Amino acid sequence: MEFLKELVREKVEFMIVGLSAAALQGAPVVTQDIDLWFRALPDPGLERVLKKVHGAYVPPTARTAPMLAGKGIELFDIVLRMDGLGDFDDEKRHAMKVPLGRIKVLVLSLSRIIASKKAAGREKDRIVLNVLTDALKAVRGHERPGPRKTLRQRKR
Amino acid sequence: MRISLDKVEHECRRRDLSIGELLHESGVSRNAFYSLARKDSVVPRSLIRIAERLDVSVRALLEDAGTPVARLKSLAAEAERISKRYPGADRDNIRHTLLLLNEKPVERLRRALRRGRFIDIR
């Protein structure tokens, strides 16, 4: 969490996507990592944060995606684009701010995660799609405060 | 029965929360909270009259929704209601999501990662 706190402190533009984002919104899923979608890479703010946490940014190669190296941050994966979705600024409108302890982080909405998983169409995405769509129904049908409004809904 | 602001503040202090943070995380607006807090009684008048007629305290007519059994019943009822609204949805998925919605987001993430890679995030 320290890494996320530092990213917020340094005003690095990012959002949590993938199954960890779905889990944050209540979906009963299992994940190995926390996928982070950065608005721009490399980012000077990210570099400052990595220095603080003694980590390093490993640029992409022809065969590998960019990665984060260092103790405590191997848990985070970098995502460059989301299948079936628009660019970062477009999708930011579908994101919501979720409290994580004392900070708030931008998290891609469940409906957009589902859209992306559908577009990706990999076996591992298909397996989890039913759980995600059921979770979205539960969140929507939840009587109490339920999901926080997305930035777009809040602006209306 | 009315809301004790002192008690709310005391519980907030115990959890290291401000009133603003509490209201935000509970999804309750400031207006709604303070208008409730200003009321002499948060119990509906009709219930007070029923209790008076029965010559019992209002408390005697209420069920504590905070007990584990009451919470479970309420959750099962909500899962049932949502399943009816969305035929085809898996009841276990609905129930598990509702259970997780009662947790803080950080705890939801911790659970997902713990099951996925046996890791303790701090």
Task: Throw out a few tags for this protein.
heterodimer, A: 156 residues, alpha+beta, two-stranded antiparallel sheet, 7 helices, B: 122 residues, mainly alpha, 65% helix, 0% strand, extended
Secondary-structure topology with pairs:
The complex is a heterodimer of chains A (156) and B (122).
Chain A: H1 2-9, E1 14-17, H2 18-24, E2 34-38, H3 44-52, E3 56-58, E4 67-69, E5 76-79, H4 88-92, E6 95-100, E7 103-108, H5 110-120, H6 123-141, H7 151-155
Parallel strand pairs in A: 2-5
Antiparallel strand pairs in A: 1-2, 3-4, 6-7
Helix pairs in contact in A: 5-6
Chain B: H1 5-14, H2 19-26, H3 30-38, H4 45-54, H5 68-85, H6 91-101, H7 105-117
Q: Biggest protein-protein interface?
A: A-B, 36 and 35 residues
- Write the element-wise H/E pattern of chain A from the N-terminal end onward: HEHEHEEEHEEHHH
Query: Quick one: overall form of chain B?
Result: extended
Spans of chain A of at least 5 consecutive residues whose pLDDT stays below 50 are: none
What's the number of extended β-strand segments of chain A?
7
What's the tally of helices of chain B?
7
